[in-house]
Design a protein that fits this description.
The protein is mainly α and 50 residues long. The protein has helices at 5-9, 19-25, 30-39. It starts with a helix and ends in an 11-residue tail after the last helix.
């Protein structure tokens, strides 16, 4: 069965969250979320979070 690669790549769309919103979503403080970013647990960086 053939898979549609384009659809699977686009399955997760960016959410455009603030740092506080992203931290809340993960039940963390902003500093805890930043620690997760440094550890590579969640994506993040200058252009990933607004």
């Amino acid at each position: 069965m053939a898979r549609n690669k384009e659809k699977s790549v686009l399955a997760i769309e960016p959410r455009c969250l603030t740092l506080q919103q992203a931290a809340d979503y993960c039940a963390l403080t902003p500093s805890g979320f930043a620690a997760w970013q440094r550890q590579g647990i969640v994506p993040g960086g200058e252009f990933d979070l607004l």
